[in-house]
């Protein structure tokens, strides 16, 4: 058995039978470990592995695309993902970004004109020192996005979600905001012009803003903060407000004839 143990020879079947009788085991006992499982990769498996590795490498490269400092015109980038900070200082004209994941995006020093972002996710983005004109943001999620020193003009935000959005030190003019969601939204040191707010407006704030032809129509305004030198130019048509909001408006010398004060039990 010594040579067997050293791997120099293999006992014959008679010897295996005798050993099995002595040890009280069957012949299968001796087969374990004698025929190691092959770990060789077949040509087909090797090709598939190389293809998967190549796809993985391409996906990693895609995540690193840098579209900043470019001029993009009449291009369809619908479905684009994972740009994050790599889209600043660019000019975009008549481009499509339909259904794109723009979350966490940093846009700085951008000019974006007549582009279509319908159905895209802009949540938690930072948009700074930019001009956004005549773009489509229909059904977009703008949650917790901050616009600073940015001018937004002639854009369509129908059905967009402005929950937690901050618009600071910029302009918001001639935009369509039908069925948009206004919850915990803040306008700070901004100019709002030719805009009509409708529907529920809750836990929002308008602080140190200027207004030109701003209208609230068929709006229910709850727990919303107004701090401005004058609200005389703001028009309210068939609106309702809770007591807290009503007092802020009254303090701003608002014309309250278009506002109904909600009973306390209906404020929540």
Number of domains: 2
Radius of gyration: 34 Å
The residue fraction in helices comes out at: 10-25%
Molecular shape: elongated
Which consecutive residue ranges, at least 5 long each, have pLDDT under 50?
33-39, 57-62
CATH architecture identity of the largest domain:
3 Solenoid
The count of helical stretches stands at: 5
Category by helix and strand content: alpha/beta
Taking the alpha carbons of the first and last residues, their distance comes to 89 Å
Strand content: 25-35%
- How do the SSEs run, as a string of H and E? HHHHEEEEEEEEEEEEEEEEEEHE
Q: Largest sheet, described in full? A: 12 strands, parallel
What labels would you give this structure?
28% strand; single chain; 5 helices; 2 domains; Pectate Lyase C-like; 7-stranded parallel sheet; 268 residues; 12-stranded parallel sheet; alpha/beta; 19 strands
Account of the 3D structure:
This protein has 268 residues and is an alpha/beta fold. The protein folds into two domains: 36 residues, no CATH class; 197 residues, Pectate Lyase C-like (3 Solenoid). It is built from five helices and 19 strands. Strands 1, 2, 4, 6, 8, 10, 11, 13, 15, 17, 18 and 19 form a twelve-stranded parallel beta sheet that branches. Helix 5 links the parallel strand 18 and strand 19. The longest helix has 21 residues. The termini are far apart.
């Amino acid at each position: 058995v010594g040579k067997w143990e050293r791997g120099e020879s293999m006992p014959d079947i008679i010897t295996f039978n005798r050993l099995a009788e002595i040890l009280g085991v069957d012949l299968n006992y001796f087969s374990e470990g004698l025929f190691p499982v092959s770990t060789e990769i077949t040509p087909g498996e090797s090709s598939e592995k190389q293809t998967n590795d190549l796809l993985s490498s391409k996906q990693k490269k895609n995540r690193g695309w840098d579209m900043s400092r470019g001029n993009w015109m009449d291009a369809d980038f619908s479905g684009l993902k994972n740009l994050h900070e790599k889209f600043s200082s660019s000019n975009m004209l008549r481009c499509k970004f339909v259904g794109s994941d723009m979350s966490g995006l940093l846009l700085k020093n951008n000019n974006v004109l007549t582009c279509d972002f319908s159905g895209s996710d802009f949540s938690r983005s930072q948009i700074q020192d930019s001009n956004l004109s005549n773009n489509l943001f229909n059904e977009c999620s703008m949650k917790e996005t901050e616009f600073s020193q940015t001018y937004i003009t002639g854009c369509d935000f129908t059905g967009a979600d402005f929950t937690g959005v901050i618009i600071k030190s910029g302009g918001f003019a001639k935009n369509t905001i039908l069925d948009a969601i206004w919850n915990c939204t803040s306008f700070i040191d901004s100019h709002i012009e030719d805009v009509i707010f409708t529907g529920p407006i809750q836990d929002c704030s308008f602080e140190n803003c200027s207004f030109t032809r701003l209208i609230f129509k068929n709006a229910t305004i709850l727990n919303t903060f107004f701090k401005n030198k004058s609200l005389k130019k703001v028009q309210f048509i068939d609106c309702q407000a809770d007591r807290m909001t009503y007092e802020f408006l009254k303090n701003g010398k608002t014309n309250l004839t278009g506002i109904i004060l909600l009973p306390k039990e209906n404020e929540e």
